[in-house]
Write a structure and sequence with these properties.
Blueprint (H helix, E strand, L loop, with lengths): L3 E11 L7 E6 L20 E4 L9 H5 L5 E4 L2 E4 L9 H5 L5 E4 L1 E4 H8 L3 H7 L2 E5 L7 H13 L4 E5 L5 H7 L5 E5 L5 H8 L3 H14 L3 E7 L7 H13 L3 E8 L3 H8 L13 H11 L7 E3 L1
Parallel strand pairs: 2-8, 8-9, 9-10, 10-11, 11-12, 12-13
Antiparallel strand pairs: 1-2, 1-7, 3-6, 4-5
Length: 301
């Protein structure tokens, strides 16, 4: 039987998750809890109910079919008891306006590879392939490993987007089936890294050293978060790390966006913080500071 795992999205025609046109498979679950996370639906490994209130017509069909009494209509408002929800999906099937959805589906490796292969003509023309992302792709490690092996078996180019928080032996095990690791580099200061991601920076540093030792190919992906890492110290560190490691092909900066705010509300969660989106002038200034004639490329992702 094919290995199974929990996937919350398969995105076609991805242009920013590795070279060429790619199909990105998003796996659920993550070790980190970044306060700026833009995919809050990816953090928990289990399936989750989401509610788009603006689509709700208060027909109450969800309440009629829910076996756990999660849906209540009180004074003209549709209230959901998310903690009682078992993500059975009955309310989703009953909703006529698609105001409800489940993030996370159990999928088999063979099923996913068959779906990805539908896009192979685009991969051939553009040098693209499949990218495993999340959440954190390595969080469901047996599933990620099986996907990478199956993808390589049919000749696909494989990228893995990772936060670097998995154990070194896991990167060693999966490396033969990965063409490029898209490695996050979030915060320079060790204390701030632990405070804002929940994981020690030394864990990510060890991962980068391990990938260097393996002779892997790495793209360093650097989110720019106002109030957290958009400062000269962090920009200088991006430049220094990019040049220091032979494994790093180039680096990308990824300006923060706030799409995760709406997703938090849909999941019944309160966002950890409010962050301003950097304007284009700020992003251009950061890129200028990162530019170094004759050095490796640092570009906007």
């Amino acid at each position: 039987m094919s290995q199974t795992g929990t996937v919350f999205d398969i995105q076609k025609f991805s242009l920013h998750d590795g070279p060429g046109i790619r199909t990105t498979v998003f796996l659920k679950g993550c070790q980190m809890r970044c306060v700026w996370c833009h995919n809050p639906e990816s953090l928990k490994a289990e399936k989750q109910l989401a509610f788009m209130q603006q689509k709700c017509q208060h027909c109450q069909r969800c309440a009629e079919v829910c076996p756990h009494d999660c849906h209540q209509f009180i004074q003209g408002r549709h209230e959901i008891n998310y903690s009682a929800c078992q993500a059975c999906g009955r309310c989703v099937e009953a909703c006529p306006t698609q105001a409800l959805k489940i993030y996370g589906q159990t999928r088999e490796v063979d099923e996913i590879i068959s779906e990805v292969l539908k896009d192979q003509p685009y991969f051939v023309k553009t040098g693209g392939g499949v990218t495993l992302s999340g959440g954190e792709a390595m969080f469901q490690f047996p599933f990620a490993l099986a996907l990478a092996k199956a993808a390589k078996a049919v000749g696909l180019h494989v990228c893995i987007e990772t936060n670097g928080a998995s154990r070194p032996e896991r990167y060693r095990e999966i490396a033969p089936w990965v063409d490029i690791f898209l490695l996050d580099y979030k915060v320079t200061d060790a204390r701030a890294h632990k405070a804002h991601t929940g994981i020690a920076k030394s864990v990510v540093d060890t991962t980068l050293a391990t990938l260097e030792e393996l002779g892997a190919k790495v793209v360093l992906r650097c989110p720019l978060i106002p109030g957290y890492n958009l400062n000269d110290e962090h920009l200088a560190a991006i430049r220094e790390v990019t040049e220091r490691y032979a494994a790093i092909l180039y680096s990308e900066i990824l300006p923060y966006h706030n799409l995760g705010m709406a997703k938090n509300r849909e999941l019944g969660q309160i966002p950890v913080c409010t962050i301003s989106v950097p304007d284009e002038a700020t992003v251009a200034q950061a890129l200028e500071k990162l530019h170094q004639k004759g050095g490796k490329v640092i570009r906007r992702g």
